Structure formats: structure tokens, C-alpha cells
Amino acid sequence: MTFLFSGRKEWNEKKKEVILRGILCVFALIPAIILIILFSYIFSNGISAINIDFLLNSPYMLERGGIFPQIIGSLCLVSVCLLFAVPLGVLSAIYLAEYAPDNALTGIIRFFVECLAGIPSIVIGLFGLILLVHYLNFGISLLSGGLSLGFMILPWTIRASEEAIRAVPRSFREASLALGATKLQTIRCVVLRNAFPGIITGVLLGLGKALGETAVVLLTAGSGLESFIPRSLFDPVGSLPVYIYMLATQGRHSSTAFSKASGASLVLLTIFFAINVSALLLRNRYIRRMRGEIA
Amino acid sequence: MRVKVQTRDLNVHYGRVHALKDVSIDIEANSVTAVIGPSGCGKTTFLRVLNRLVDLDGARVTGKVFLDGEDIFNGVDVTSLRRRVGMVFQQPNPFPMSIYDNVAFGPRIHGIRDKKRLDRIVEASLRKAALWSEVKDRLHESALRLSGGQQQRLCIARALAVQPEVILMDEPCSALDPVSTARIEALIKELKREYTLVVVTHNMHQAARISDYTAFFLNGELVEFGKTSQIFTNPAEKRTEDYISGRFG
Predict the structure, then answer these.
(1) Within this chain, do residues A25 and A136 fall inside the same structural domain, yes or no?
(2) Same domain, A219 and A95
(3) Which residues of A touch B98 (CB under 8 A)?
(4) Digits of tens for pLDDT over chain B (249 positions)?
(5) 3-state secondary structure of B76
């Protein structure tokens, strides 16, 4: 066929393709480069602040002390958030995927869930402030913060769980029913069991979102500089993102303030990293089970 | 002839589509009944009526279906019906669990928890499905590591574990190689001593090999039903003869 193309034209086409590939490759590398730059900057600024005192003491006078209550506070907030959003999310997903009829009401429910996903976090924070902090009188507290975070990640737990449930092949459900299982038994023993890794991945991703959320927590949970660990659901609670915010804005722009803020950021990023790795390992386990490598 | 499953004027509609038309048939106990016919003739729908999996398909079913004289759509609990009438699907579909857990799934669902009892049931079912010798040393490996033919025999063992009376098979060999097919055909002939089998098949030669009775469906109608030997040598209906001799299909 080569006689159909002049040698010149073919060479130009090839050159174009090589250049295009090069450009696309560079574009693909940009996010990785940004991540590396970001991490290096935070790391270089913050590593000096990381030591045992920093991790185990409480903050005082804004720029001194450590972030221990903030670490614990973030974990507590996220726990309350998940305790609310995960059971509710999974049960809603089961309803939507397995029981909901294909009608207008179901369509409306789905639409509302999608809308909730799109609401800006500051608005959710404001809602939490008005409803939970003031109207229900929970005050600035772990409970108000945790529940507000729960509202925020609920659409994600529902979506991820529903997708995971739908991904379970129909053939498994039919095989289960054909053996005389009830629908509930099929959901419990076949569907949820197989959807579990997908649901957990969704939970971990929601956890990540909640962990890093600043606006909601700022309005409902505490100033970020608490020097105590919450003893009840109604105590105010510190958190890493708000601490970072405080140090970055209220600090005297001194290197101590920035380095402590960066140090706290490093801790936060480490927790994120751990969450992402867990999510990856879980997906891996699921893929291996589907391939038959493990039972 | 002792009748195990009976239908009278069975009609199935999917919306406007009339999938089964006035099907009346008597299936004899401890026999193998082959269900043959071209694609789309209603064979699979017919099978799915017998264990009421058709309930999941959004179909409208009228007429009567009897298992040992009881109307399965009226007054029989659907989960106990499905325990008594098992099904093996065209594509082997073992759960992504161990071989043991696959076979034990049914009994566990029905409340059997005692490990020794489950062990006995698992072994007996795998033996009946002619799979025991091949898997007895790796019961706790994933079922998905088995070959296609082994997976299908595992599905048969899984169905046998709940001690059904009728076994429905929807083209059980169509996804398998000839060697596995031959093994499963031998298994089917063995199983009829204890169970009643209804086997849908695309393969007329298979139907002739394994079955005692044959039902020929065309466009949702039961065109002819009778002893296999008679259907294949001296069919009463012209349409049956045309299908069997390959004039269409």
C-alpha cells in the first residue's frame, strides 16, 4: 500500500504523532508534579516541627505546644460522622438498589440525594450551626460537628454503597433465590458480602473528605485550639484542619506559626495517605477474590 | 405414570409479549424430560415458571402449575418451593467463595449450623455430582479456580445439597467442552433415579441421548410432548418433524 502515500506525507504524520504523544505525556505528568511540589514544600516547612512533644502535647498561646487534642479531635469527629453516615447510607442504598420501585417518588429521592452532594460545605456548616448548635442546643460540640460532617458525606456513602450493591451480578442473586433463600437472606449473605469491599472503599473516601473538612468544623465543633480532649459528645473539640487555619491566619506570620501549621498538615496528609492505601488494599483483595485467588 | 409436575393452561405475558400460550403438560416423576425448540420459543420461561423465578421477571402468569398436586402459585411458600425445585443455570455461577461454602450455602440458609452435619452434606452432594474425588483435598480453595465443567458440577452439587425433588437445568452444557458435557450427561442419567429432571437443551442429539420424554416448544406453544423415542422417530406433528430434521431452527 505504500505507493498510495508519498514518503514525505507519511513521515509528517509520524512526526505529528510522536509530538502529540510527548505533549500528552507532559500533561499527564502535571498532576503528579504538582503533588510532588506541594508535598515537598509542606514537608520542608513542617518536618522541623514534628517531634514527640508536638504530637503529644496540647497547644497553648497559639504558637506553642503541640497538636495532640487536635489529632484526637479529628478522629473523634470522623468517628461520629461515620457512625451516622455509614448505617444510614448503606441502608438507604439497599433500599434504592433492591426495593425501590421505578417510580416518581424514587426519582425524587435520588434527585434530593444528588442535590445534597452539591451543597457547598460552608452552607452545610451554617445549617449545622443553626439547627444543631443553636436550635437543638447541642452547642459547639463533637456532636454538632460530627453530625454536620455526616450530612456532608451522606450522599457519598449512599452513592458508593448503591454502586457496589448494583455491581453484584444478577446471576449470584438468582442462584441464591433458586436455592430457597429469601430476598433478605440473599441481600445479607450474597449481595452485601460481595458489595462489602466497594462499600468500605466508599466509606474510606468519605472519611477522607470528612477528615479534611474545615468550614463545617469551624462553625460547629470548636476553635481548633482546644487544649483538652473531649470527654462527652457535648464538649467542643479541636481538629487538625481548623488548627492549620488558625495558625496560618492568626499567627504572626512567623516561621514558627507556619512550621507548626505545616507540621499539622504533614500529620493530616499521613492519615490521608494511610486511608488511601487501605482503600487500595481492600480493592485489591476484592479483585483477587473475584479472580479466585482467595476464597 | 406418577406425575410430579403438572401445568394446565399456563400462559405467561411479558407486557404485550405472549411468551407461553396455553401450556398443559404432565411431567413424570423420576424421569428426564428434555425441552427443545428454537431460540425464543419460551423454553427458559417455562423452566422459570416451575420454580417461580419468573416472579422476578415482571411477568404475568395465568393458569395452574402443580407440584405433587399442590398449586405452586397459591398457598405454597415460594422459598420452600424453590428448595424442592432446584435450578442449574446455563452459565456456571458459583459464588466467589470456597468450594465448601458454595455447597454449604443452601443448607446454612435453611438453618443447618452443625459443622459435622454440614461436612456430611457437602461430601454427599459433591459425590452425587461426581466432583468429590477431584476437590476433596481442596475444599477451602476458591470455587472460581475450577474449570468450567467442574464449576457446573459444583453448581449441581450446590443444588443437590438442599435435597430437592425436581432439578431444572437450563442448557447446562452449552458453555462447556465435549468432555465435560459427556460427564454431565452421564450424571443426569444417574440423577433421575432419585430426582425428577427437566432439561432445556438447544442440542437435539443431547435431548435424544439423555431424556425419557421430550417437549417441543415453538413460539410459546407446546407443539408436541411424548416419549423421546417416539418424538424423534415418528413425530405426530409436522412442525416437530421439520424442526427435528433441521428444516428450520
Answers:
(1) no
(2) yes
(3) 295
(4) 799 999 999 999 999 999 999 999 999 999 999 999 998 899 999 999 999 999 998 899 999 999 999 999 998 999 999 999 999 999 999 999 999 999 999 999 999 999 999 999 999 999 999 999 999 999 999 999 999 999 999 999 999 999 999 999 999 999 899 998 999 999 999 999 999 999 999 898 999 999 999 999 999 999 999 999 999 999 999 999 999 888 876
(5) coil
**In total, how many domains does chain A have?**
2
Cβ–Cβ contact A192 with B under 8 A: no
Domain of residue A38 covers: 2-48
The reported pTM is: 0.84
Q: To which H or E segment does residue A65 belong? A: strand A64-65
**Residue A178 to residue A173: CA distance in whole angstroms:** 8
| Residues A116 and A7 both lie in one domain | no
Contacts of A198 in chain B (CB under 8 A): none
CA distance linking residue A121 with residue B38, whole number of Å: 59
Query: What residues form DSSP beta bridges with B88?
Result: B169
Residues A10 and A130 in one domain: no
d(CA A183, nearest CA chain B) in Å: 9
The enclosing domain of A101 has a CATH number of 1.10.3720.10
Tens-digit pLDDT profile for residues A44-64: 988 888 888 788 888 877 777
- Give the torsion through C-alpha atoms of B97, B100, B102, B104, to 10 deg: -130
Q: Which residue of A has its CA nearest to B88?
A: A175
Classify each residue of B142-162 as buried b or exposed e, where b means 16 or more C-beta atoms within 10 Å of its C-beta: bbbbbeebbbbbbbbbbbbbb
Q: Do both A37 and A179 map to the same domain? A: no
Residue of B nearest to A174 (CA): B53
Q: Please check whether residues A24 and A108 belong to one and the same domain.
A: no
Binary contact (B89, A175; C-beta < 8 A): yes
Nearest to A177 among B82, B145, B158 (CB): B82
